Design the sequence.
């Protein structure tokens, strides 16, 4: 006989009080908990009554509640800011019924290797807002570096301070449409006539989980568009990978570099990718 | 534990274990029209509409959706009064073995309620979580197009 107890807190304080208990876990959309099973837990804290399902967009700043699903974000952004990389990425993740259950809070808590959130988070300089023992705001590198930040804490929202007015490109490398991506490429760019003003590039799925290509970003910023024909571009886009079912480290590294090159040409020169 | 679910417009109070999925609970209570496929959220054959939104019922804990509205394919039409989508699936030859059909129809219904005149890209996107192991996708997409035309002309 299972002894798992479900809790449905109506306030953040009540929810956080449960998190201090042993063997208690948070339920957002439940897609990861279903896979891992909940029989070993004593308590499940459901977040659905906390009002964390919202998306606010004001002057280019996006704030999204932790219980908002990928599907809701993709649909809202398709109307509000169709070019926003976050909507493009989350709208292509998994499948329609799964996107309708996966929440931003759950996804940022787990950040699985196949995450479609981590790349856009990186290039948009997303911030994770939490309440509880380690309540505060954290950028992605800090969040990834210290997983203990999540103990006794609850992700309440994600903040994207500079989310719009970018040319954006998102690519997920899969063998078939419905598949976990072996890598993702996220690129944001701004240009003025033939001059590249600013570029942000992130590749996920490699040994570093998420890698910003800072050297390439600096080389491109302020440069003429003709730099995109440089043979050095792919070298600077090189990212190390481990072996995966989708390919060898060398293969994935080459694919990532090609995808970065194509992404840059797509956003800056409107070339077909 | 016990909970109330509003299934196809009727309140049902059911007992279930805390780790039960919505699929477990629906099938244990006679809703055999909700099919069990992969149990991993991949094939989509267990799809239902939860508050009007398509979900894989195998990926939803029953406890998390108590007091919610759930629609299965049995709630949208009958054999004597089929829904336009059900008629379109039959007339288009979109039903082969039929195992995926209830979920396909619900996925199409969720789409047409939001977007009565979808293009092919939007149809493909709406059905992207539903697999047809008979691979009869061409006829399924034709059926959705046909139903969309008929449902729009009734508006």
Sequence:
């Amino acid at each position: 006989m299972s002894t798992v107890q479900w809790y449905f807190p109506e306030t953040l304080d009540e929810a956080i009080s449960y998190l201090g208990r042993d063997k208690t876990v948070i339920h957002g959309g439940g897609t990861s908990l279903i896979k891992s099973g909940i029989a070993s837990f004593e308590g499940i804290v459901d977040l659905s009554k906390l009002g964390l399902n919202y998306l606010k967009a004001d002057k280019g700043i996006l704030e999204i509640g932790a219980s908002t699903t990928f599907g809701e974000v993709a649909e809202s952004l398709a109307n509000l800011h169709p070019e926003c990389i976050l909507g493009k990425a989350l709208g292509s993740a998994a499948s329609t019924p799964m996107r309708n259950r996966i929440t931003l809070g759950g996804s940022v808590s787990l950040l699985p290797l196949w995450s479609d959130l981590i790349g856009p988070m990186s290039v948009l300089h997303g911030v994770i807002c939490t309440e509880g023992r380690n309540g505060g705001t954290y950028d992605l590198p800090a969040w990834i570096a210290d997983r203990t930040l999540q103990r006794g804490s609850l992700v309440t929202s994600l903040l994207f301070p500079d989310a719009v007015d970018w040319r954006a490109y998102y690519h997920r490398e899969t063998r078939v449409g419905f598949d976990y991506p072996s890598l993702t490429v996220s690129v944001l760019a701004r240009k003025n006539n033939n001059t590249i003003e600013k570029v942000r590039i992130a590749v996920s799925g490699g040994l570093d989980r998420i890698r910003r290509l800072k050297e390439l970003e600096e080389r491109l910023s302020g440069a003429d568009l003709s730099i995109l024909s440089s043979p050095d571009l792919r070298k600077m886009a090189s990212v190390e990978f481990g072996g995966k079912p989708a390919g060898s480290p060398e293969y994935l590294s080459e694919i990532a570099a090609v995808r970065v090159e194509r992404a840059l040409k797509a956003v800056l020169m409107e070339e077909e990718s | 534990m016990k909970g109330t679910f509003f299934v196809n417009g009727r309140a049902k109070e059911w007992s279930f274990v805390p780790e039960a999925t919505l699929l477990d609970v629906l099938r244990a209570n006679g809703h055999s029209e909700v099919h069990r496929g992969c149990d991993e959220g991949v094939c989509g054959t267990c799809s239902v509409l939860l508050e009007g939104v398509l979900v894989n019922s195998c990926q939803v804990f029953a406890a998390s959706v108590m007091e919610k509205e759930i629609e299965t394919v049995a709630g949208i039409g009958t054999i004597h009064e089929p829904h336009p989508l059900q008629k379109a699936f039959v007339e288009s030859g979109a039903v082969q073995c039929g195992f995926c059909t209830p979920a396909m129809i619900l996925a199409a219904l969720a789409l047409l309620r939001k977007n009565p005149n979808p293009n092919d890209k939007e149809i493909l996107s709406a059905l992207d979580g539903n697999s047809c192991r008979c691979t009869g996708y061409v006829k399924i997409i034709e059926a959705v197009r046909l139903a969309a035309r008929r449902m729009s002309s009734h508006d």
